[in-house]
């Protein structure tokens, strides 16, 4: 089975060809179809911002490392007991790349993200097919195309971010980072009643994209004073909700200064594993009473993300599509930042879903 994988550990941004990480298309064994499993013929699989981190060895260095967890496709086969959710062969689907076991202590106490068996079905989906447990698979609405459907997983992250903000209608909201998660979070927060909705982003095209999708203000942190602009936008009060979707160690520290008293600050990205951020407990936790949190994965968010998909504007996130065999080029385009999202077409599948 042709699968996109990391074939050499190293940064994909390394200018030295000898040490740069590499992406290739390799043959992996077919995944077994268990009695409760669903085999999906993959239509589209999107590159996630976390994928370059896998190339850097973030989760291990034994290559090849199969990639892909944002995907859509068509049900190709069902295990003999895969009938609880009503799936049928030919259904257009997307899903959660993680299977939560449901039996360990975290799962049984409402904390699925810490499932002790979370890796059991962690199978690469940037491939011709992927086999998941039926609990991971969701049928797409007719109004959502397969191309749009591969964004179910990142949409679930935006939904989980919204959950963790505990946003109230009218809260002032700032988002740092105009990549896919930042852009999706912006649309979700707008639907949740955010005001003074602001994107902080150094790339002009991404600031403009955010304005097209509901941002009331944008800040260029390179040419503008982030603190001064935040004060102007919020009448000196600061933002009630601040979300980092950049993953930038240079950007995250300053977000505490633009947060209002009693605000919630969400660190909603992956960060360098050895990065430590200085934190003045007296200033930020005692005097300002900030709530600081992050997120790992998106338990309990997928059904609601599925409900959200028809209401999101996904056109600008689905314009860069490459064939599976062109994965190395697709990853080069991804790290260049030329497009906010890059997607691989893993199979040519006739799609009856319509792009709105």
Automatic annotation (TrEMBL):
What are the Enoyl reductase (ER) domain coordinates in residue numbering? Answer: 21-344
Keyword terms of this UniProt record: Metal-binding, Oxidoreductase, Zinc
Keyword set includes Phosphoprotein: no
List the InterPro entries. ADH-like_C (IPR013149), ADH-like_N (IPR013154), ADH_Zn_CS (IPR002328), ER (IPR020843), GroES-like_sf (IPR011032), NAD(P)-bd_dom_sf (IPR036291), Zn_alcohol_dh (IPR050129)
What is the superkingdom listed in this entry's lineage? Bacteria
Q: Name one GO molecular function term.
A: zinc ion binding
Query: Which cofactors must be present for this protein to function?
Result: Zn(2+)
Pfam family, any one: ADH_N
Q: Which family does it belong to?
A: Belongs to the zinc-containing alcohol dehydrogenase family.
Instruction: Return the protein name.
Output: (R,R)-butanediol dehydrogenase / meso-butanediol dehydrogenase / diacetyl reductase/L-iditol 2-dehydrogenase
